[in-house]
Amino acid sequence: MSSSRFATPISLRPDPSRLLAVSILAVHLGAFSIVLWLRIPGIVKVILALIVLINLIVSLRVHVFMIGKRVVRQLVWPLSESIRIEDGVGNEHRVELAWDSIIHPWILVLNLIDESRTRHTLILFPDSSDRDVLRCLRTRLLLDRK
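Structure (tokenized):
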């Protein structure tokens, strides 16, 4: 692995991910089936089912369709600077990677905190962007953590 290959500026504009959409649907269908299986009064089941449905809609809007002001539309990481993102309304922010971010070969969950302490979450599956860009980003994130 050449270090110069990973010492390049990273520019990432995430695409909608089918894997993420299927994962979100599977988790919410599982939650919905558990709600139906519970032995609780009917009105409580209806309320819990509505909560699961609302969360499904919000999760799909934000993470799959990328609608909202805290959405990350573009991530840019120059060589010697901090990470910059463009949010859902077109504003640019300098961000720091939060400690609770997940870096794994099959999924990146980047919790990014901007200068006003607002949290932006970017979930990247292998089909979210170019394979080489994701590999470079993952490597750089791991090296930057050390």
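The longest strand covers residues 108-114. Residues 10-14+70-145 form one domain.
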